Amino acid sequence: MKTVVITGASRGIGLATAKKFLAEGWRVIGTYLDKSIPIEDSNFISIQYDQSNSESIARVASQISSLAPHLDALVNNAGILIDANDKVPDPAKLRKMLEVNVIGVVDLTEHLLSLFGNDSHIVNIDSGYGQLCRPVDDEFVAGYRISKAALNMYTHHLAFRLKSQGMLVSSIAPGWVQTDMGYSIASETQKPGRTPEQAADDIFQLVTTVKESGHFWEYGKKIGW
């Protein structure tokens, strides 16, 4: 049985992705921050995890290593958007988003690298906001954009590092999804149109069918960085 680690699995895209992998016969290790994960399945294990805390990251990495000596996939889904209404970058909020959306992802991934083998797939949940070739169309979420652009560079760099070992690394933009985060940037006239389940399907397909490393994906297609 294949094993996947999914961070931020208590709700939204993470929860839907955990359910999708379980339905497809995978063993799932899911992390949560403060809200337990509403899944009861013999192939599911939940672990409390704070992606902004280095001690928590080291502890969770150790737990995962003891639970699964080999990982087939890692879905770095946990992330935050806390500047939805800010037109000017707030240094304190930016620092927090970099800690969670970038540094925490890097820290956990590097801790777990020894568990991956040939054809293992690391997927970083990114955003169209992190796409440098995408025109900036409003003044908001500058800090979130910065953090997601940085995460894309980690994907790009890690894919190069691991290429000779046969490991796959990808970024994916799930689209504007009906989650707490998605609704935080909605308006009266514009609201998210994708369901978490649709995003989960895209993530599962990326993990299980794509054999190219070092690309940014959206709706099943490669997009520019």
TrEMBL record:
Top-level lineage group: Bacteria
Gene3D superfamilies per UniProt: NAD(P)-binding Rossmann-like Domain
InterPro entries: NAD(P)-bd_dom_sf, SDR_enzymes, SDR_fam
Protein name, per record: Oxidoreductase, short chain dehydrogenase/reductase
Molecular functions (GO terms): oxidoreductase activity, acting on the CH-OH group of donors, NAD or NADP as acceptor
Family: Belongs to the short-chain dehydrogenases/reductases (SDR) family.
Pfam family, one: adh_short
